[in-house]
Amino acid sequence: MYKLRLFGKLNLCIALCVTVFYWLLTEWNERVETQFSYIAGEHIQQLHDYAVQVEDMISAGQFNELQQWKDELSLRENTLVAVIQIDIDDIVSTEWDSTPYDGAYVGRPIQYPIHLYHAENPLMDIPLSIEGYHLLIRLPQRMRPGAFWNELYFASQTLLPILFAMLLSYLLYRYLLSPLRKLESATRRYADGDFSTKIYPDMARRQDEISDLAASFDDMGSKLAAAISQQRQLIQDISHELRTPLTRMQLSLDGDKTEEVLTRVTLEVAGMRNLVESTLTLAWLENEKPQLNKDCVELAPLIESIVEDARFEFPHHSIHCKLDDIQTLQNSSHLALSQSIENIVRNACKYTPEGKDVLVALQQQQNDVCIEVADQGPGVDEEHLDNIFKPFFRLEKSRDRLQGGFGLGLALSKRQVEACGGRISAHNKPPQGLVIRIELSNCKKRKSLSKADHENLK
Predict the structure, then answer these.
(1) How far apart are CA 400 and CA 407, in angstroms?
(2) How far, in Å, CA of 47 to CA of 68, rounded?
(3) Is the pTM of this model over 0.70?
(4) Best CA proximity match to 74, nearest among 134, 138, 23
(5) Quick one: pLDDT at residue 444?
(6) Burial of 21 (0-12, 13-18, 19+ CB in 10 A)
(7) What is the DSSP secondary-structure string of 208-247?
(8) Which CATH number applies to 290-457?
(9) Is 296's pLDDT higher than 80?
(10) Taking the domain 41-87+99-143, which CATH number applies?
């Protein structure tokens, strides 16, 4: 579905609102102006009453009284008043209908609208019932319609647009501020340690940059929560792992045998140092997520060297190699790969009973290379195949009871392989054993590792 971005939404909203407002304002102005343009009913009746009085005086022949009445009315209304007789002289021959004088007005009929923008009042023409006679009167100021039209017109042209702009701004402000307030509230909850807060579900329907921001915010929160949880778990695991050797050292120091105490303390200190170094390396790989791609690695000689060391360390195991002739692996890290493969081979030898075989295979698959290390140990339950790469994870079954360790070897191997741009996975091998598979890209270029990163890895 196409996303109507925020800019498009605002443009469309403003354009529609302005168009509708302009249309409504124009329509309203026309209607109001029309209503304000007609003479009020009581004033029309007053003008008709004047006409009736004139008719009565003409019918009675009271022309002197009519003159006096006209002068008094003109003075009272402060306007022009006249009584005229119209005699149409047909210059050319015309066939008239039954009402030849209809429409013969000298002034403006009283039923017509008045121009509100003209300063001068119109001359109103009221035909009398006596044929040819008309009462002419310039509309008195008190009868002029649209008394408050100028003020109303000014309000419609200035105040209403201002109020409309304020209302539209307020609505847009609410539309934009509402998600920002949710974001602010979520940020405060994050600051209080509540990382379960999610704001994207409430904004998913917006489908704009703000909903994208909400999705990124939730993703950041999930990653932050996972990182903090991982750090807390790492601290707990390290504390647990250090507590045991410290207890053993304390018990050894309570004895009387100096040489055994020294030997025990030396071993425990070496184990603790190995634990701390491994944990620091793991934490660096987890937090910095470096891309180790500065070296060119000869895989076959590297694996042969690691296998020779393993044969020396585990003389009662049969370690077999099946290595294809593979070209140099580009854009990788010799140190990270050697440590990772060595951990996996040593791990396979530890869990393989004496006299059994360990197989190390290297083969090329198009542009990738695959390294497999297979043992003949007890294997791992399917639901734990991914968990064995987690730091300090131990199985409760016999595979972990066979050997000690801190549970960091495979976790380190996974992070080191991933830092080299590869993938690592575990699979059970029927009828017995575990296969660790490493897949590496042979030609993909990645960002170079800095000198500081190499020092941290060491």
Answers:
(1) 9
(2) 18
(3) no
(4) 138
(5) 40
(6) middle
(7) SHHHHHHHHHHHHHHHHHHHHHHHHHHHHHHHHHHHHHHH
(8) 3.30.565.10
(9) yes
(10) 3.30.450.170
